[in-house]
Amino acid sequence: MKQIFKSIIANPGKTTGLIIEVMIVTIIGWIVIEPVAVKTSIALTPAGYDYERLVKVSLDLFSQSSEKYDSEVTYDKEHQDSAYDHLLLMLRQRDGVENATFDYSMGFESASSGMSSLRADSFYNKDGEDNYVGITMIDYKPGTDYFTTFGIKDINGKPFSEPVNDGSSYIISKTAAKSLYHDVSAIGMNLFNWDDEDKSGIIGIVEDTPYKKGDGRNAIAFRAANEEWSSPDGIVLRLREGVNPRAFVDRLIADMPDYRSGNFYITHPQLFSDMRDEMFSGQKRELTQKWIIVIFFLVNMFLGIAGTFYVQCKTRIPDAGVMRAFGARRSLIEWSIIGEACMLAFIGWILGSIIYLIYLKFQGFPMEFDTDSRIIRSIRPLWFDTKLGRYSVIGGIILLLLLVTSTLGAWLPARKVGRVPIVDSLRDE
To answer: What is the pTM of this model?
Structure first.
């Protein structure tokens, strides 16, 4: 270690230049890596249900101008419900289908959504802070095996057994339950807790499930769809184990004319995995652009820093010859050169990080989250929720990249320097 510090001090001009270069790379690294790391972490939030095995078909009605329209069939709500039930039964009986259920416009991977802002448990009270939590609503039809079809688990990780719902009760996610009732079980309590007379009983708690890909952490409540003003917009099929989803969709498309009931029919089969990708497409483009910038930065960092250390180490041949003449082992020479490169990278990283963090302090430490709810962040904390966690992780990533790059940049020439014959080294000296 002493030899490393002596070597650094002995070449102040070159050392200063290398440290400044590492400082610049560190600051740029903070700027480009932080948003990518946060957004990637949000994108990797588990779905919480078995989307890989799900296929959705839309429900539609022939127009009166269509040649397929049956004018003898009376159209009313009763006929519609009967037709939908018949189509659901037909799809459940199709080869390769394990289960099926109705899906509504307010459902997983939907562009539309409904949210209620509810008062959180007093445990989370904080002066000057909003004490409400937003809960996203999902409609389902009780008694149609909705949770079994989607593969939603209970809070113990086991398949959720759907309780009987009289139409006024709710099933909520674990985060929603914890935010509304911190110290007691939410089962039997009211979801809408602002009025003691309100009847919105909670009858079940399930594992957390994001509403759609890219939402990250959120609180969910499943409610019975109001059949008077809300109708299913599709049917979701759960495929059996081992069934190829894309091959299943291809076969279903060929057989779709067979799936008709009255003037209602199924159309537009979609894989749920494709629906997730479609809903995430906007964020994916943004994330891809940021990853391109990061990769461009990493390539240039490697070429720049590694190349600089490569040139710097080649100038150590005379010093190595002297050390070899006094009996130094080749491994000692090589590791001293690598250690010097890592030390310079570490010093540059510290100085660069200090400068950038001072800048952030004047900017107010802008923090981006996947949820605006302070309460949800306290219930399900992630590494980027706090300044300490966020800047420790990002700083560690940058330091690791710098050390790896510096080590590679110094190791290649260090091997040659340590193997140069003593006579040739001293002749150069």
So the answer is: 0.83
